[in-house]
Amino acid sequence: MSEKNGSTLLLILIFVFFSACTLKYEDTVAAESKNPEFVFFDTQLMRYEGKRKTVDVEAETIERYKDSNSNYAKNVKFKTFDNQNQVDTEGTCGLLFAETGQEIYELYDGIRLFSKQNKTNFYADALRWNAKTEQLISGRTDSVKLEKDGTVIVGTGFSASGVSGKFAFTGAVSGNIETKSQEDSSADSENHNQEKTEE
């Protein structure tokens, strides 16, 4: 083997060696980013703004990732509180992803939300809440069910504003409305009058 060919072979071996090291290093970094830095089991977390509690979360598992504001939780129960420290919204879900820096929260699997202010139940399998804009949305084809005062609505492409309190569906909608008959209303009125008389 000539000296020139030997030098060329040596350069190729050095290049391959350092390339392999770089790839292994990248694999290590990727593995660290996929593994949680902290894992908490059967945990309750509370968030405060000043002295006021704003959120209370209970979860079977919570994972926090290194150099990130990302948190993942499994089998979650949560409550949010208004300015008077009263429960505003409460709910449950199978999985929760929270990007706390951006205040983005994604809920999955068996979601149930109850808005005390609107006295409305929401059921879905995927919802996204932006706390900065106070917008709750579903995917375009994801189904959401609402229940309020005997009215049930099911639709896709759901969105709701926490600012205005209004909601809308951009996709197909179906549902039913329960109304009291005149006889039921009369019976309720008679029962109410009897109770007042007995008092």
Would you give an account of this structure?
- This protein has 199 residues and is of the alpha+beta class.
- Helix content is 25%, strand content 50%.
- The chain contains two helices and twelve strands; from the N terminus they run αββββββββββββα.
- Strands 1, 2, 3, 4, 5, 6, 7, 8, 9, 10, 11 and 12 form a twelve-stranded antiparallel sheet that branches.
- The protein starts with a helix and ends with a helix.
Low-confidence stretches: 3-32, 185-199
Give the N-terminus to C-terminus distance in angstroms.
Answer: 114 Å
Q: Categorize the overall geometry.
A: globular
The structure class reads alpha+beta
Q: What Rg, in angstroms, do the CA atoms define?
A: 28 Å
- What's the helix-strand series? HEEEEEEEEEEEEH
The major beta sheet can be summarized as:
12 strands, antiparallel
Q: In percent terms, what proportion of residues is strand? A: over 45%
Note the total helix count. 2
- The oligomeric state is single chain
Mean pLDDT: 77
Question: In percent, how helical is the residue content?
Answer: 10-25%
Kindly state the number of beta strands.
12
